Amino acid sequence: MARLVSLTDEDIDLICHCLDRHPEIYSFVNKIKTKLVKSQKRIKNASAKSKGREFQFWVCRKISELLNIPYNQQDDECLIHSREMSQQGVDIVLRGEARERLPIDFECKAMSTMDIPDAVKQADENAGVDRLGAVAFRQTNTDPVVIFSWGTFEKLFRMFIDDSGRFLTKFVVKKKGVKANGGR
Fold first, then answer.
1. What CA–CA distance (Å, rounded) separates 104 from 67?
2. What sign for the dihedral angle of Cα 86, 92, 96, 100?
3. pLDDT per residue over 41-77, tens digit each?
4. In contact, 138 and 55? CB cutoff 8 Å
């Protein structure tokens, strides 16, 4: 099982130096050293922005599929649109019917590490009036996840229950997702 560990560059240099002292296990040592040295390489700013942009496009396509509303990034009037990098506001712009049907504003993060509380705070601050803020997060080689604050969870949960606390629809949990039967 792979685990994430935080090491400083100095830690990595020291470990590599110590590993060099064990030539009898060269192939094992070389494999570890290669991983450690590779982890020290920083992604270029242009590559990072490209990675983030592609993830925003992916989120737009997924929202388009969920809402059955066409998405075309080239069309500035499209109801689902990815905001240009480094601009202020939410990363996914929803207009008209898309905005009415999905009460969530997304911040997108495609990175190896993320400060979750800061990202959630940013999503909540950038969310529009009467909108819920959420972070769409994808780490390299993992499935994307959506993260939001407990307050957002409560608001979202309350959208699906009646005054007595019962769900307005029946949910059937399947291996590849959740399907709602009935409802509003």
1. 13
2. negative
3. 676 777 778 888 999 999 999 999 999 999 999 998 8
4. yes
Q: Is the pTM of this model over 0.85?
A: no
Strands 145-147 and 80-82: unpaired
**19 in helix, strand or coil?**
helix
Does domain 45-148 fall into CATH 3.40.1350.10?
Answer: yes
Q: Which residues contact 131 (CB under 8 A, 6 or more apart)?
A: 103, 104, 105
| Cβ contacts of 25 within 8 Å, gap of 6 or more | none
Specify burial of residue 101 (Cβ count, 10 A radius: 0-12, 13-18, 19+).
middle
Q: What is the DSSP code string of 99-160?
A: HHH--EEEEEEESS---HHHHHHHHHHHS-TT-EEEEEEE-TTS--EEE--HHHHHHHHHTT
Separation between Cα atoms, residue 102 and residue 136, nearest integer Å: 14
What's the pLDDT tens digit per position in 142-154? 899 999 999 999 9
The domain ranges of the chain are 9-40, 45-148
